[in-house]
Amino acid sequence: MPEQFPIQIDLPPGFDKAPAILALGGELKSSICLIDAGRAWITETMGDLEQEFVYRNFIDQIDELFETTPPAHLVIDKHPDYLSSQWGERLAVKYGLTLHSVQHHYAHIAAVMADNALPVDTKPLLGFALDGLGFGDDGTIWGGEILLADYRRFQRLACFQPVAMIGGAAAAVVPWRNTLAHLLPIWEQVHTQFADVDIVQFLKSKPVETFQTMVNKGMNAPPASSCGRLFDAVAGGLGINREGVAFEAEAAINLERLAATCFEQVCEPYAYRIDRDDCMHINWQPMWLELLADIRSGVEPEAIASRFHHTLIDALTKVAQAINENHDFNRIALSGGVFQNRLLSTYLPRSLESCGFEVLQHRQVPVHDGGLSLGQAIIAAAR
Q1: In this model, does residue 143 exceed pLDDT 80?
Q2: Which CATH architecture has domain 7-116+363-382?
Q3: Cα 1 to Cα 5: distance, rounded to the nearest angstrom
Q4: Paired residues of 47 in beta bridges
Q5: pLDDT of 140 strictly over 80
Q6: Residue 209: how many CB atoms within 10 A of its CB?
Q7: From CA 329, how far away is CA 5, in angstroms rounded?
Q8: Is 297 exposed, middle or buried (0-12, 13-18, 19+ CB in 10 A)?
Q9: Fold adopted by 163-360
Q10: Nearest-5° angle of CA 280, CA 281, CA 286?
């Protein structure tokens, strides 16, 4: 096997007869996974495929693999604009291969399952897939997903309340756009009740009416259930990287650093609401009103950041318990780039375990999109 596949894991029980399958991962933190002869072989994370040298390296590694171990099946992300997906489509036509597409967040959860050696016929578990974004089965942007899943199928049972990404991709690099997007549904209350709060004064200097029109008309403001954008929104509200970030997740990293200074001392969660429907929505509007009140009262940003993290932990725990009332599961799998946050990856499992759940986290494979390719490959193998 070529040296570019340094991560090697034995396939879980029941996958020993899987044919040669090549999965091409995502777009950011791209990786490739080959399933062959009862093992999964995974490359190191290559980086962002939109960077030319990364994309060329991605193609070169695939070309080398086709020369040594040509696959029978190809697997890609469902996002039609991912360069990895587009390249996979070309390869499938060129070589006459069966092509599978797998939903982004489902692949995250399947990767945790495989990383923990769960057998092919394992019963469904609950998965928390929290990241910046991924293409959802309904054509919208997902990123705060609670899925009931096994290797063969999944059901979206809950998610974060979708909020507009004002300016589309610009929202991923300008945190205040996410702050405004979260506040727009309650803007009348916010701009009158909290007119003296710094972030509200800042947002009033922006063309709020224009942005509201964009959201109302769906003009370059796609709704997203993204957990990553929620972190950006709270960071922007606290003045952390408010007007821009230099690299992916910079605002979230800095928000976590603030919270870590007093996390065990300041632990009261903010209010939130769980809107029950076929797919539960975690609604953060009550949190924003309390958070703005804290800012106006002069509460230290460190304490607000800590309370925000505790709110996420409390909300996700409560959602798991609510879903468990109607669905039989005892395991919960955690995946997605948000779980690089040490506070969440440490204290959410403790909260869930205190409720009787067994929590699965990554062992050998990256929690971020570098692990997607394993999830894609193992789902295709189960099919």
Answers
A1: yes
A2: 2-Layer Sandwich (3.30)
A3: 7
A4: 30
A5: yes
A6: 9
A7: 34
A8: exposed
A9: Nucleotidyltransferase; domain 5 (3.30.420)
A10: 135
